[in-house]
Specification:
By secondary structure, the chain is of the alpha/beta class. It contains eleven helices and ten strands.
Amino acid sequence: MPIKKTVTIVEAPSNLGLMPPAPGKFPGVNQAPTALKAAQLASRLRAQDGGRVEAPLYNPQTEPLIGIRNAAAIRGYSTRLAEHIGRIVKTDQFVLVLGGDCSILLGSALALRKLGRYGLVFIDGHTDYHTPETSRSGGAAGMDLALATGHGPELLTNIGGLKPYIRETDTILLANRDIADPRTYPAREIFGSQVQMMPLDKLRSLGIDSVIQQILEKFEDTAVSGFFIHLDVDAIDSTLMPAVDSPLPGGLSYAELSRILRGLLGSDLVVGMEVTIYDPDRDPDGSAAREFVNALVQCFAAVYE
């Protein structure tokens, strides 16, 4: 039986966590919510409008004392976004957050932390476990998972004294493909953490359906109130989704992504999902957006009325 739950879309048009794509140019991911809605995502999902949380103006300069671009702005934005998301989750609606860059995870995670203990399924082409010491870009979009689990400057990891927003033990990193050699991988803190990492090659070898079943059983056996899905579209094969800032060879097919999302969305514990990193500037004819929306709508149609 499909799960009867209202999907409510929140727009989070932030580009604060990315480095400039070129001198004098700002990242275009802040246009993603508008572009995805233009591709009929909201209408085809029959989703309710949960509003839009405008982001502060982008500053391309890295803040020298903290080593993260737009750090203070991200803190303030995360606080406002968390309040918005939290109100929706409390009404038992499924919140679909359209970003924006991956730093919006801090707002989503903070919202959930204020409500209790929640798990996170982090679907991303990268670990996003950098800190200012290991990041070459100074962008929080490459540090968001580390920050959400309590690693990095207190300005972003301990908003409201709620560190960590998501426990490492309640976090599953899924489908990343950015670690060629663990010995030279700069964000090496991930290896010493308790985050369960399931890289793409391992996910495929174990079988997607089996892995998703294990994840759901883990959350069912853990004292979490529910779990949240982070989907960075750079987890998708870059030939299918080229409109990202850090493409990597390979990636999930849409058939594989569908199996993952249908399995997760079918759980009565899932409370929401965020979509990040799609950049309309890199998709001038909108074809990548349309294909992505088609895939996403089919996943939701399988489990939601």
